């Protein structure tokens, strides 16, 4: 087993653990917070979390097994591997389209804030989720019907096989290009266009707030220099906050999916020039998106952080109450034992005295 495979396996093991814990935490927050459930984008978050969890318990463990065993147990392309390969295409495409839907939702919320609730309703969000499922099912079902799903040695996982598979050649090339164009490229264009418009609106509002802030600082002549500096620092942070968020949304998408998509397209023309370890690493980067999505889209938001804090306080408070009640019970039991011991000592002390009085 090569050292690169060991490193990829260790990385994938960490990704599985983080993905399971973080996505389960998102589901727990979704269940315990009614405000989160009322929002229309919650359906997108729920769909994305479902895809990430299903990928964490199906695709990732088999890829880990493929790295550890060099694919010896999966080269036959059995029913389990074909099912997981079907899920790989379906879940990856569904996740990309869901991220595009989230970007469109943010664009409508920022550009049309007054009419947002009338433009984006729960049934509209449900229709968008239904489209992502139908879109993903079409490609994954087509690949399964053409027997293009099985174990791929380059990626050490059950996924779409190369052009040498049964029914490959030109048909597989057209299918692969269409799949990535209508999933990765479509989602990337939608995210770039919508988030750049959101950034433009955010910067416009920041400029208006900055003008009001500077006018206020000029009028307040007697303001303390520390307060003035604090206002200027908040003004600078306000400008950077929206840029950092949008850079995170687009940056994680590009970083995690681009290497895999580019490798897939290069594989169609020159598969012999692709390093096997690079293929496994690009697949691990795709799985890394499932671990980062809960933090990018959910857990760092105020509602989720508030819910996590409340749940943590409940758990800690319950454990403290249980430990306190256990201490009280132990003290009561100890006092009871001491009382019984004292009573037994008194009884033994009184017995000889009664016998001596009888002898007299």
TrEMBL record:
Residues 22-297 form the G-protein coupled receptors family 1 profile domain. Its main location: membrane. The keyword Transmembrane applies. The keyword Transmembrane applies. Residues 337-360 are annotated as: Disordered. It is found in: Cell membrane. Residues 342-360 have a biased composition (Polar residues). It is a multi-pass membrane protein. One of its GO terms (biological process) is adenylate cyclase-activating G protein-coupled receptor signaling pathway. One of its GO terms (molecular function) is G protein-coupled receptor activity. Pfam families: 7tm_1. InterPro entries: GPC_Orphan_Receptors, GPCR_Rhodpsn, GPCR_Rhodpsn_7TM. Keywords: Cell membrane, G-protein coupled receptor, Membrane, Receptor, Transducer, Transmembrane, Transmembrane helix. GO terms for cellular component: plasma membrane. The chain crosses the membrane at residues 6-31, 128-149, 169-198, 246-266. PANTHER family: G-PROTEIN COUPLED RECEPTOR, G-PROTEIN COUPLED RECEPTOR 26. This is G protein-coupled receptor 26. It comes from Hippocampus comes (Tiger tail seahorse).
């Amino acid at each position: 087993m090569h050292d690169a495979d060991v490193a990829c396996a260790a990385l994938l093991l960490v990704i599985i653990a983080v993905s399971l814990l973080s996505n389960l935490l998102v589901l727990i927050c979704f269940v315990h917070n009614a405000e989160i459930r009322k929002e229309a984008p919650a359906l997108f978050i729920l769909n994305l979390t479902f895809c990430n969890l299903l990928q964490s318990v199906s695709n990732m463990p088999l890829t880990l097994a493929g790295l550890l065993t060099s694919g010896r147990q999966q080269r036959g392309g059995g029913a389990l591997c074909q099912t997981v390969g079907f899920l790989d295409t379906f879940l990856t495409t569904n996740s990309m389209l869901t991220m595009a839907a989230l970007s469109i939702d943010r664009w409508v919320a920022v550009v049309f804030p007054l009419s947002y609730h009338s433009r984006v309703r729960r049934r509209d969000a449900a229709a968008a989720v239904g489209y992502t499922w139908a879109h993903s099912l079409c490609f994954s079902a087509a690949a399964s019907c053409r027997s293009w799903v099985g174990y791929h040695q380059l990626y050490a996982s059950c996924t779409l096989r190369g052009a040498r598979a049964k029914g490959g050649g030109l048909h597989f090339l057209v299918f692969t290009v269409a799949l990535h164009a209508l999933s990765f490229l479509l989602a990337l264009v939608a995210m770039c266009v919508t988030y750049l418009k959101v950034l433009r609106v955010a910067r416009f509002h920041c400029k208006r707030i900055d003008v009001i802030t500077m006018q206020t600082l000029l009028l307040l002549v007697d303001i303390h220099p520390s307060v003035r500096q604090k206002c200027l620092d908040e003004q600078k942070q306000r400008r950077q906050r929206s840029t950092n968020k949008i850079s995170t949304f687009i940056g994680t998408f590009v970083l995690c999916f681009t290497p895999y998509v580019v490798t897939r397209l290069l594989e169609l023309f020159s598969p012999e020039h692709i390093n096997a370890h690079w293929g496994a690493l690009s697949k691990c980067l795709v799985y890394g998106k499932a671990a980062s999505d809960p933090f990018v889209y959910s857990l760092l938001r105020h509602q989720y952080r508030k819910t996590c804090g409340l749940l943590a306080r409940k758990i800690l408070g319950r454990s403290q109450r249980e430990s306190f009640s256990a201490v009280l019970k132990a003290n009561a039991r100890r006092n009871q034992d001491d009382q019984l011991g004292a009573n037994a000592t008194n009884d033994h002390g009184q017995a000889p005295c009664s016998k001596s009085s009888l002898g007299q």
